[in-house]
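Hi team,

Filling in the usual template for the complex we talked about on Friday. All components are listed, including any nucleic acid strands or ligand strings, so the model treats them as one assembly.

SUBMITTER: L.P.
PURPOSE: interface mapping
COMPONENTS: two
RESIDUES: 951
SEQUENCES:
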Amino acid sequence: MPDPALSIRLYRWLLRIFPATFHDRYAGAMESAFRDELAETSGIGGLTLLWIRLLADLARSIPVQIAREAIQDGTHALRLWSLNPWHTGFAIAALAVGIGGATGGFSVVHTLFLSSLPFHEPDRLASFHPNEFIPPHDSSTEFHRWQRQSTYLMSAALVEEKDVNLGGAHEAIRAHAARVSWNFFATLGAPAALGRAFVLGEDSPGQNNVAVISYGLWQQLFAGGPAALNSTVHVDGKPLTIIGVAPSGFDYPRDTVLWQPAHYSAGNNGWATVARLKPGLSWAEARAGFDADVARHSPNRGRSADPLPRMRSLRDSLLGSSGAASLMLMAGVVLVLTIACTNVANLLMARIAGRTAELSIRSALGASRTRLIQQLLTECLMLSVAGGLAGLLLAAGIASIAARVQPPPLAALSYSILDGRILAFSLAVSIVTGLLSGAFPVLSLGHFRAFATAGRSLTAVQVALTIVLLTASLSAGRAFVQLMDKDRGFDPRGIVTVNVSLEGTSYEAGKRQLVYFEEALARLRSLPGVRSASATEFLPLYSTGFVGGRFGVDGNPASRGSTMIPTMADYIRTMGGRMLQGRDFTDAEVRSGARVALVNERFAVAFGGANEVLGRQLTIGRTAGWKIVGIAAGMEFETDPSLANSNQVFVPAERPGGFFSTFVARTDGRAEDHVAAIREAIRSVDFQVPVFGAKTMERRLNDFYVQPRAYRTAVRLFAACAALLSLIGMFGIVTHAVVQRNREMGLRMALGATPAQVRGMLLRQNLTVIAGGAVPGVVGAFLSGRFFEHLIPGASQVGFAASASLAVPLAAAASITIWIATRRIPRLDIMQVMKTD
Amino acid sequence: MPPPDLSLPPAHFHILLSLGAGDRHGYAIKREVAARTGGALKLGPGALYGSIARLLELGLIEEAEDRPDPHLDDERRRYYRITKLGRKTMQLEAARMSDLAKLAADRFGRPKHA
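RESULT (copied from the run log):
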């Protein structure tokens, strides 16, 4: 017979799982009943049978009792809440901020790091950046020989992205396409949803007139029907046969809707490589193989200033900088969560202090300490679940900001909070937060004074943090206003822009591009509400692919290069630019290819100013010059301030429509109202020409600065949350003080102080907490200024005075909070207060 | 018109039935119930004290302050006593059960070898 003491100890321990009241009342009786049963049991078999019966009994009865007491405690908590609506509201708000922030942050981290990529065994996929290493690719044979002989890769595929004109049965659209080696889909492990992927040899000349389209494009062009297969699609005018449809959600590389076989050539350096590691090979082994490969194929690499080529996991290369940014976001929200948690603890302590009288009565009536703790924790869990639900709104906000700042790299990934795992995370955080915020007050039972000091210091820290964040939001806000209102040498208001591309259309040959542009401009100019219209090959803000060179005057080159901007007639006026001398091109000059040019002010200054260069010859190298017919204020083409306002020369467009041609129209009234009509007017010239990017210039500015705008929103959101939390912290400590110093205040009022004077005293005392946080806050704002300058483009240091002045509204809001927290003082019954002690 | 079905759960019924014969502590109730039902209703301690807590809450039983023999007894044992409300409930329950038993006997008769 085993030691009965062991059984009794074990049973006693199991009884502790019962909720407090039940345990307090019946554990003793149950234990003695157990002793009796034990005494009547003999042998191992009997004991085993007894334990089986007991365990089954406990498994049934413990949940029943827990539910019973939880319902009692919950009802009790709801009654307390209705008695203290401010307290409860603030606690829920603080938890909503904390848990919502954490959930939002997690949804981003989850999407980027934890969700699976739409590829087979994505963790075995690697990628090489085209700037670092491109495998041999002069021909299909050469590339595939390389990838087949690789010692560390099972297979590798080349990818090149390109915007193309997609002509279907009806009309052409502009689309993002990728040129890939035949084994692209096989390497990624993405089977076709319909038809087939490319097969061996389809990236060789003569066999490469095939394409795979995305699931989305299949729906759009063929309504998801089987007719897609073997249909013809025109890519930049070239007919390709559709052989397959990619799986749903597959749009790699970013936003690709069509894949066609690679066109190999020696000079091409835009190839990215995706590869799958050889089975059984570790990443370290594969990297060693890669390094040897790099040394063999590009021996000069590594000696230059270029970073050493690295083989990254596909996930890392898809994440880029957004990975680090999202981890920073997560760190930030964890901080906020901690603050929220301590705030709620603070509020709860204030309430417990207020209930000490009630508690001592209850414990006299037999409510045990465990029972009180259980009640408190139940209340905390209810608070945090309520806060968690409210926090889902904030979480959705964070996810949408994140989607604008750092869009997910694949369509299959999106920041959504409506995901089982995210919601489970939110629930788990709610529970942990509830338990943590309950733990402080439980530990503090009996040590209120020490915790009150801790509460005050904590609020001061929050005030400091709030000022840092408010300052940052001020600086981000100013930076944004400056960014939007900046003089860019053109006036975005009233301009409508529309892109076209003549690639692969019947206008591409000969000089028919000009015919198209002239016809489109004629239609635009005749539209009601259009004051002037023109077109350019390089619209401001879109600086990619500029051409230019060392232009000069009369054969003397300038000391620095100029960018060359081909335009149609009337461009400067239409853009709202400033003509300093001379005039725009005329239609006749553009049509005849006249050798005339405009230069910008900066260029002119290098040659003695506008008056000096007007009428002279603009030259480059030995080619015949262009006569300078006008000098315009420079337009800002680059968004990088360090590159802005370079030397610029404008020449009549000879063959527009090739790369990034944009029609611009200056309109009367709201530009938005004219977008549709202008787009249609251009489309009507020829439906086979894809017309895209129809939007106002202001909209383009907005789109371009979506990241700084989102940063501004994010910083404001964080600042607002911090301010809210510090006010809640303030409310907590003041309520606590009112309850704690009940007797002192009663005494003061008995001695003739008015309630207003007592409240004023509390106000003064607690405003010192604000002051105590404001000073380090202003210093912190100054010190962190550089960090925000770095993070937010265009943000600049906000002065001490401005940052210090932020403490004023904060103090005002805190005063109101304190006044609310002390609202019970006038109702204090002095005699009652004196009697209780 | 049959009385409304207010039947007590079997555990409650048997606990009250035991207490009808005098105050008992939990373990005694349990043993008595097991004996009476021929082992068919075995109340584990959790179920027993869960039912006791519920009956206390409903006011059908109460704790007995005086113990039959405090010297011989484990002081942690609690004794229970049926209340007036408890007796009334059992009377109603007994009436209801006998009505039902009579109805059943009228319809089906009694077994021949009983």
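MY TAKE: Chain A has four domains: 4-83, 130-308, 322-483+706-836, 502-689. The longest strand of chain A covers residues 153-167.

Thanks, L.
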